[in-house]
Specification:
Length: 357
């Protein structure tokens, strides 16, 4: 026996979500974003599930790229932040990786590569996010330098939007970038999940969907299910104890919940050491044997409590879905002041995982 908590990954949902995105995207090619262990879903399982669908994969760590190659994934692989040092720049050729070039330092590393096997680079433009990339006024020079290097082949021009998921939109960033992109005559890559769903004029040649593949909405005001996506990750745990509360009794550390009536609560084998957010407010949604309920009190390291007052049939052994198809991860994230991405990435290694094909 083992502690009754588990993470289930539904690979057919990931495939569904890819095809759903494919149908809506104008982009000619879609590179599935599998960084951060495929947003916590398992990079190898996810990449294998998408191997015959995705036009390529995008990630950060060269170790992950090498692992995909060693697992037989033959599609193009793009390093979203490019090489982190000269050795990685050299390895890009060896493993046939493409990737961003956002700095002069990267250019110098890449230039030392082999002209027989030039590294394919995506010129990264900082169109307003102000994290990585050449400013629009530097782009012409940067591209000229890339084109002059025999060991480098410019293969795309890319940027990343700061507000594709918000009312602010992408117009300001798109305006400068679109001109550069046209002048460069390179394939264009700009759209993340939110832009793929909301801003078709930015789709260009290579879309970069991430969160939608995992079935969550990139938008604050909707859920993946409402958009037509299928949640691919389900975190669930069982009730291991039941408490009868009297009016005035408190629950958990800090007495953060005090009963204002007689109540029945269940203690669930999931806590912040499993990746459930400690900061989640009273009433954060859960589903108990499929019925809606909410958390009560502060989340502990290994346990949390849920209201069973309206669920007399629930008890020890009842399954509590913390997030998944019955408890939208977007709602859980909102109750914890964060986004679904962070919850997906934070599930702890101690939680046993299983796959559904
Ligand atoms: C993470 C990332 C994406 C995917 O973003 P989603 O919002 O998950 O679709 C796309 N492009 C870049 C550069 C990224 O870092």
């Amino acid at each position: 026996m083992t502690r009754p908590i588990r993470l289930e990954i539904d690979l057919s949902a990931i495939r569904h979500n890819f095809l759903f995105t494919r149908q809506r995207a104008q982009a000619k090619r879609l590179f599935a974003v599998v960084k951060a262990n495929a947003y916590g879903h398992g990079i190898l399982d996810t990449a294998k599930a998408l191997a015959d669908l995705a036009d390529g994969f995008a990630l950060l760590n060269i170790e992950d790229a090498v692992a995909l190659r060693e697992a037989g994934i033959d599609r193009p692989i793009a390093l979203l932040e490019g090489p982190f040092d000269a050795a990685e720049a050299a390895a890009m050729g060896e493993y046939r990786l493409c990737g961003a070039v956002h700095s002069l330092e990267q250019m110098a590393w890449l230039a030392k590569g082999s002209a027989a096997r030039p590294a394919e680079v995506w010129l990264k433009i900082n169109s307003g996010m102000n994290r990585l990339g050449f400013r629009p006024e530097q782009a012409g020079d940067a591209l000229a330098r890339l084109r002059a290097e025999p060991a480098i082949r410019p293969a795309a021009i890319m940027t990343h939007f700061a507000t594709a998921d918000e009312a602010y939109g992408v117009d300001e960033q798109w305006r400068d970038f679109a001109t550069l992109a046209r002048d460069s005559a390179l394939p264009v890559s700009a759209a993340n999940s939110a832009a793929l769903l909301r801003h078709p004029h930015t789709h260009g040649d290579i879309g970069r969907p991430g969160i939608v593949l995992y079935g969550a909405s990139p938008f604050e005001d909707s859920t993946g299910a409402a958009l037509g996506l299928r949640p691919a990750m389900t975190l669930s745990a069982d009730i291991i104890a039941v408490q009868q509360l009297r009016n005035g009794d408190a629950v958990g550390y800090g007495r953060r919940f005090v009963a204002d009536r007689d109540m029945r609560i269940g203690i669930v084998a999931c806590g912040y050491a499993d990746g459930y957010p400690r900061i989640a407010a009273n009433g954060t949604p859960v589903a108990v044997d499929g019925a809606a309920s909410g958390t009560v009190g502060r989340v502990s390291m290994d346990m949390l409590a849920v209201d069973l007052s309206h669920l007399p049939q629930a008890g020890v052994g009842s399954r509590v879905e913390l997030w998944g198809p019955q408890a939208p991860i977007e709602r859980v994230a909102a109750a914890a002041g964060t986004i679904s991405y962070e919850l997906m990435c934070a599930v702890a290694a101690r939680v046993p995982r299983s796959l559904r094909a």
